[in-house]
Amino acid sequence: MDNRIFRLAVRCFYKVIAKRLHWRVPGSRDLRGWCAHRICADVRLPVTINPQVDLPPSLRMEPYAGIGQGTQFLGLGRVTLGAHLAMGPRCLFITGDHPIPRAGGHFRDHAPVHADIVVEEDVFLGARVTILPGVTIGRGAAVGAGSVVTKDVPPEVVVAGNPARVIRAREK
Predict the structure, then answer these.
(1) Is-catalytic flag, 98?
(2) pLDDT in tens, 88-118
(3) Which one from 22, 37, 84, 98 is the annotated catalytic residue?
(4) Phi, psi torsion values for 169, nearest 5 degrees
(5) What is the DSSP letter of 153?
(6) Going along 37-139, which residue ranges are E strands?
(7) How many whole angstroms separate alpha carbon 158 and alpha carbon 123?
(8) Is 131 helix (H, G, I), strand (E, B) or coil?
């Protein structure tokens, strides 16, 4: 079977069945991980993908990364998730943006801009975290629930708020 047809078949299977399987169904997380490995650019198993997640083709995941239930990926940029990532439900990764036109200009006249998001290894993202285009979250960082990350986050710190600000360094 042609590889493109196989990928399309796996994507359809994922959207119709695997994405909706309850997390208590035996093997459902393994099935979603297998589908991600076949659909996405670079997914290294084992990974944990909870229900109700639409997988973008440009997603990259390292082993033992987890995606929370209902997480969304918006835009055409690449999202890279590092190893041992823990994520709460309903996180939002936005890789596209529109530039602000000069006064009197129209938004529709400007092409959208896409920038990649990188989440390094051993990071914790709380529930409903929003990450904007071009952001890198450093190794070992923790992002509080409901935070909006607009700038790069240094390694080994705790950030929270809207916009997210460094609260403190993680204890050694």
Answers:
(1) yes
(2) 999 999 999 877 777 887 777 777 789 999 9
(3) 98
(4) -85, 150
(5) B
(6) 42-43, 48-49, 59-61, 66-67, 72-74, 79-81, 86-87, 92-94, 96-97, 113-114, 117-119, 124-125, 130-131, 136-137
(7) 10
(8) strand
